[in-house]
Design goal:
Length: 347
């Protein structure tokens, strides 16, 4: 394997500096301003920030086009002054009462239209921020009971919505972020395979790719590194949300490597093998601090995720490929297994 010399660039979103609330308890840290979060990103030496549309323009549904342009331009200047790029913008289609029963696949045609209109506006916001990447995490596209929706029609609705976005702007690229559940009982696009299949049905498949999140693969019972390899086989891994997940439960967004170091190593190794980052892609950490985390340790989960990533890059680059190839040729997988373990343990 030709050793990758990619210099990785790192990214997170304002929501990754979260206040600790969970379904069973209130925040444990005081809410902070966007300016505070941007200053922390600068301090950490990250390269880009990812956004939801209403991270850029709070309460975006209540704003006029003029206000949206003005507020987006104001945030863009803050990013520019801080030397931070905008990685992507995602329409937050899971809070509004108009997406209570789905967004693009809602049974209500007015709500489907709302989701498409909001997505078009997200593209306009992204253009003003200088990114051509839109991420669609299809949070409410699915069902709580199968009989409430028509799964076949839902695919058509998804394709129609994406086609409307592709028609809205001839440069925009759309990355679908698959997830099998949460908040839905079952989501319509649970894996990278589903995402790329939907991409192929759109009017311009080369502008529809994917974003993979480690935890979402685990929630689907799949291996994140295999999902990454699959997406890269199509040249369609345009962004990443690296994190970790400890089994099939709520989406934990744990720091990268926190639950499964071997799995994290294999994700980094497959990124290296396929030269992720060499086409401008960012490594984003979609991680949250543990709820008990103190204010003074608020950035650690992001700094640690990057540290772990970079240490695993060293492990991938110092992996003895020749030695491993010999064990594979000899079908000596017990020895190979032990070699990987001892390599990671730093024998
Ligand atoms: C939620 C998703 C979300 C998207 C951005 O599970 O990972 O964080 O990445 O809205
Ligand atoms: Mg994510």
């Amino acid at each position: 394997m030709k050793k990758n010399s990619a210099h990785y660039r790192f990214c997170f979103g304002p929501w990754n500096l979260s206040e600790g609330a969970d379904p069973y308890g209130p925040p444990t840290r005081p809410a902070q301003s966007f300016d505070w979060k941007l200053a922390q990103m600068k301090k950490l030496g990250f390269d880009a920030m990812m956004f939801h549309d209403d991270d850029v323009v709070p309460d975006v549904d209540a704003k006029s086009e003029k206000q949206i342009i003005a507020e987006t331009r104001e945030l863009k200047k803050k990013l520019f002054d801080a030397g931070i790029a905008a990685e992507m913008v995602a329409p937050r289609l899971w809070f509004s009462p108009k997406t209570i029963d789905g967004a693009y696949t809602s049974n209500d045609p007015k709500h489907r239209q709302y989701a498409i209109d909001r997505s078009r506006r997200t593209i306009d916001i992204a253009n003003l921020l200088g990114t051509d990447l839109i991420v669609l995490w299809l949070a409410r596209e699915g069902s709580y009971l199968r009989e409430s929706k028509n799964a076949r029609k839902s695919v058509d609705y998804l394709v129609q919505a994406i086609d409307k976005m592709l028609a809205h702007d001839k440069r925009v690229r759309i990355a679908i972020e698959p997830k099998p559940n949460e908040p839905m009982d079952h989501a319509y696009v649970p894996t990278i395979g589903h995402a790329l299949a939907v991409a192929n049905l759109t009017r311009d498949p080369k502008r529809v790719g994917a974003l993979i999140e480690s935890a979402h693969c685990t929630l689907a019972g799949l291996d994140p590194s295999d999902e990454i390899a699959f997406a890269m086989s199509f040249g369609k891994l345009w962004s990443l949300h690296l994190n970790d997940q400890n089994g099939l439960k709520f989406d934990q967004d744990k720091p990268f490597g926190s639950a499964n170091l071997r799995g994290a190593f294999n994700q980094v190794r497959v990124l290296e093998q396929n030269h992720y980052g060499s086409r401008g892609e960012y490594v984003c950490f979609d991680v949250h601090p543990f709820r008990p985390t103190k204010v003074e340790h608020w950035l650690a989960h992001l700094d640690n995720s990057r540290r772990t990533f970079l240490k695993l890059v060293e492990k991938a680059r110092s992996y003895d490929e020749a030695k491993a190839a010999q064990m594979i040729a000899d079908r000596n997988y017990q020895a190979l297994d032990q070699y990987v373990i001892e390599h990671l343990l730093g024998k």
